[in-house]
Amino acid sequence: MAASQMLSARDRDFFLRIGKIVFANPFSEIRAQQVREVAGDFMRPGMADAEALMTVINRRLQALDAQGTFALSDLTAEDAHCAKPVFLFDVYHRHLAGLDALIERQASQRETRVDATLADRLLGELVRRGFSDEEAARYFALFHQLRRAYYFIEAGLVGESPSMKSLRRALWNNVFTHDMQLFDTHLWKRMEDFSTLLLGETGTGKGQAAAAIGRSGHIPYLWQQRRFAANFADSFIAINLSQFPETLIESELFGHRKGAFTGAIEHHDGVLARSSAHGTLLLDEIGEVSIPIQIKLLQVLQERSFTPIGSHQTQRFAGRVIAATNRPVHQLIARGEFRHDFYYRLCSDAITLPTLRQRLAEAPDELARLVGLLVTRMLGVADATVGGRVLDALAGCLPADYPWPGNVRELEQAVRRILLTGRYDAAIEASAGASSDALLQAIDDGRLGASALLAGYCQLLYKRLGTYEEVARRTGLDRRTARKYIHQQADTAGPA
Ligand SMILES: Nc1ncnc2c1ncn2[C@@H]1O[C@H](COP(=O)(O)OP(=O)(O)OP(=O)(O)O)[C@@H](O)[C@H]1O
């Protein structure tokens, strides 16, 4: 093509339509609809949308490439703008298998290096389309990020109920924003200030969602060294704040210097220091931390700096923060246990994970899908017969409207228990139900004191949830108090 040639109106229209698809959320219905409009004639049963789209794009590019590789430099600035996403999509899709193999190797071997065949070919193709070396390297890093995000969101959060689909869309937007063009031009290197709050009951997959976001951050590709600036598998760190007594939380977060307090016999790096510049830190069970720790964390989020205990040197924290809790944050705020300012600084985005009962109410076949996935995880291979047996056992042991208070984690336990014993201990669930009736009756009769009421409730939850920690989280009590009430209930004549 001659320099600064203009695209035909037909080509320009085609490129603009493809551009919209390229920048759309791949988990959105709008994108699926746009693909059908452009590539519907090429779609076959079982064919992925992208494959049909690639067929259409290939035909158009082959025609344009007939007189030599058609590049950005051949076009006016306006037409180059239209063509750019199509070139990117084309190169990205032709290297999907190479990107997947690279991601798998990086996950298992924790390396940052990229093999020459993939890097040189992919970058070479972009350069031939008119991208500079630096731009090509940046787009290689973006392709790598897109593929990771797609994989971790799709594979990590299974489910076809509407609420799961909308969760996957929300997670994608959390990584790339809802405007991918803005992400591409400005925000790709500025996401660390966008913190996220993940809400939802215990076992709904908040940890899983955080890991999907955390492993999908942007990591620059250093093309002259043919490696990434960091390994994505190392760039996600999680700390469960409910595991540590108050005295240790500070040290686990901020670190300490040798001699800072009795027992500080070595220097210790906290999670903030260990988190990489391109990384994400999950502060799990954020609803458990005290006000003084909230103030210190707020400072980290606002000023991006922290000081280890016993040190005078401030250190910089450059990562992104995700916080998660299964506690009702607004109630904690109302009770003065969670600071407003900290809450607002944490939630550039707040995502609520759906409960398993909501998912099953929307799409009853979600249970079979999840059981299939869990059986595959546990056996190492898919086995429809075993999956069927587990589903039969669940149907035999539980009422159809069983509320799954422990969500997917409880379902995981149920599948394990059925694999071990052939049944999911309906006795436990039934006794929880019986207790619940008895407790309600006792409340109705007005014969419970405050302490017996709390004890009855804790015991009921304990039967359902199985651990003191879970009961403590649900009730907002600390673990020792929850334990005390659970045992008190057993000794007190009451609604057992
Ligand atoms: N949609 C899902 N698809 C596949 N597995 C899931 C899904 N949701 C949750 N899980 C699995 O359920 C278990 C519990 O998930 P996770 O630990 O992420 O829950 P959580 O919401 O963080 O719980 P908690 O609040 O108690 O920490 C994990 O083993 C996770 O792999």
Automatic annotation (TrEMBL):
GO biological process assignments: regulation of DNA-templated transcription
Keywords assigned: ATP-binding, Cell projection, Cilium, Flagellum, Nucleotide-binding
Annotated Pfam families: Sigma54_activat
Protein's name in the database: Flagellar regulatory protein FleQ
PANTHER family, alphabetized: SIGMA FACTOR, TRANSCRIPTIONAL REGULATORY PROTEIN
Start and end residues of each Sigma-54 factor interaction domain: 157-420
PROSITE patterns: SIGMA54_INTERACT_4
Domain of life: Bacteria
A GO term, aspect molecular function: ATP binding
ATP-binding found in the keyword field: yes
